[in-house]
Amino acid sequence: MLRGLVCWIDESDQSHALTISRLVMKRLGYSTPKLLADAKARSDEYHLDDMDLPDAADRKFTRMHAIMRDKTEGYFEADEVDELVTTPSLTAEIDQQSVQAVLAAKVQEAREAGLPSDCVETLQQLLARYCDVFRLAFGNDPPIKVPPLKIRLKEGARPVKAKARRYPPLHREYLEKHLQELLDRGLEYINHRSRWASAPRIVAKK
Predict the structure, then answer these.
(1) Which of 172, 150, 148, 96 is nearest to 127 (CA)?
(2) Which branch of life, at top level (predicted)?
(3) pLDDT tens digits for range 14-65
(4) DSSP character for 203?
(5) What is the count of structural domains for the chain?
(6) What's 132's DSSP letter?
(7) 66 versus 112: which is more confidently predicted?
């Protein structure tokens, strides 16, 4: 019995086939080099003409590989990906009036929540001074002058593939909208080849 094994079920396949990764097989004691060495020790030559082998198109792994290839072949064109990542097209124009309207609404919310009058005035002055740093959508802005973020792992730490999270409907709606906007602006792309993943976590601001 295999416990804790993450699997993918293809409900359209009725052959009851099971494909296990090389790492799992190694954990179970399966070793391809050892099998080849044992076969070499038994005989230097094998004739496989009389074996009833299925066609390559009917093999489970070949079908799975073909599915993933068809899904990613049209998307992962080298020129398209390079252009998408290196020179994203950000044509959105800055609408300062809309930004000021949203900021005014936020100030009103703070006033209704009990913010003192002198603090309200100070807040309005700060927002008016730094109004140009607020955006309602992605725009054609210069890069921020900050040091690049570096991920530093502790000694002995190993990356893992985190499990998927269960999100409330509002969180899912926000993630779908936000990620689609990033895709449309060319700020990210779908990577079907990634072996490591971490589910996003939405934290409410206080």
Answers:
(1) 96
(2) Eukaryota
(3) 666 777 787 888 888 888 888 889 888 988 887 776 666 555 545 566 666 6
(4) -
(5) 1
(6) G
(7) 112
Rounded Cα distance between 140 and 145, Å, is 15
Under 8 Å between Cβ of 197 and 162: yes
Number of Cβ within 10 Å of residue 187's Cβ equals 14
Let me know if residue 112 belongs to a domain: yes
Give the type of residue at 1.
M
Q: Say if 108 falls within a structural domain.
A: yes
Cβ partners under 8 Å of residue 196, min gap 6 = 159, 160, 161
pLDDT digits (tens, 9 = 90+) for 72-105: 555 555 555 555 555 555 555 667 888 889 999 9
Question: What is the residue whose two structure tokens read 């994203």?
Answer: 88
For residues 86 and 195, which has the higher predicted lDDT (pLDDT)? 195
Domain-embedded: residue 39: no
For 103, the domain range is: 96-133
CA dihedral over 190, 194, 199, 205, signed as positive or negative = negative
Q: How far apart are CA 178 and CA 173, in angstroms?
A: 9
Sequence-distant (≥ 6) Cβ neighbours of residue 68 within 8 angstroms: 192
